[in-house]
Specification:
This protein is mostly helical. The protein is 87% helix and 0% strand.
């Protein structure tokens, strides 16, 4: 019985050795010149690693440039939205100024002394032109931001400062109109109390 089992086991063992040798030769053939006689050529691997590093550096620089452009685009968009709100606020304040002017005209027709309110409103007109100029200046500073420039941070900071000055100019104009309104109310109340 041992003789009967010996022959099939021997055939299986020889076939496994043959297939293992064949598989080893096919792996070496696939590896090509990089694995001659089982040794790795380190020079080729070092060159490949250097090329990969250079590719990563190039890709990193490209990604950084694209990111910088997206950030600048977003900054310009946000600044544009803020400036649109500033322009809308200035338009509303101009309407208020027109209403105050018509109120002064009505009170003047009634014989009320509104010269103080009129002079204050005239000084508000100067603040109005200053606010308009500040908004135009801020728009020009925002449009001057160039993503390709080396001084992007400085240009953005200049634009931010221009935005702050435009906001302050609008606040000054609003405060002036509020003062005129207050003065006009007191003048109107005094005139109505004096008429009684």
């Amino acid at each position: 019985m041992a003789k009967k089992l010996l022959l099939p086991i021997l055939v299986i063992f020889i076939s496994l050795a043959f297939f293992a040798n064949f598989a080893n030769k096919s792996v070496q053939a696939e590896a090509g010149a990089n694995i001659p006689n089982g040794k790795v050529q380190t020079r080729d691997i070092r060159g490949d690693v250097r090329e990969k590093r250079q590719d990563l550096k190039d890709n990193s620089a490209t990604r950084q440039a694209e990111l910088k452009q997206r950030v600048i685009k977003r900054i310009k968009k946000v600044f544009g939205q803020i400036l649109a709100r500033f322009s809308a606020a200035l338009g509303r304040l101009n309407k208020i100024s027109d209403k105050i002017q018509s109120r002064i005209k009505k009170l003047k027709e009634k014989g009320v002394d509104v010269s103080n309110a009129q002079s204050m409103l005239d000084s508000c007109k100067a603040k109005r032109s200053a606010a308009e100029a500040a908004i135009v200046d801020a728009k020009s500073k925002v449009s001057a931001i160039d993503p390709g420039s080396s001084t992007v941070r400085q240009a953005v900071q200049t634009a931010v400062d221009a935005m702050h000055s435009a906001k302050e100019a609008i606040r000054d104009y609003h405060k002036c109109l509020a003062d005129v309104t207050r003065t006009l109310r007191t003048t109107s109340k005094e005139a109505s109390n004096g008429a009684k």
